[in-house]
Design a protein that fits this description.
- With 112 residues, this protein is an all-beta fold.
- A hairpin with a 4-residue loop joins strand 7 and strand 8.
- The chain is globular.
- The N and C termini lie far apart (40 Å).
Amino acid sequence: QVQLVESGGGLVQPGGSLRLSCLASGFIFSGYAMNWYRQAPGKERELVAGISSGGGITNYADSVKGRFTISRDNPKNTVYLQMNRLKVEDTAVYYCKTNGYWGKGTLVTVSS
């Protein structure tokens, strides 16, 4: 069955960096676009970034453009989200999603 397992979350100070990973299994990873979403406390889940199946096309929410980078390693069945210059408002649970399937999320807390 399809599984998406996120990792890499944690506590970081404002201005810091984190790299999230999402390990996929149960489907042909290289055939699907992948997305990162996030949900902050009391807010709706929102799309953060997306990447095409081959990795050549990416898109970002305006709030993270220039700070976050999505990438993928198809032989490793993994999609990444490099997050730089983190802000307090980036605090959220970050989820990996593809083709209707969601991971369980990883918590990112940005706080001094």
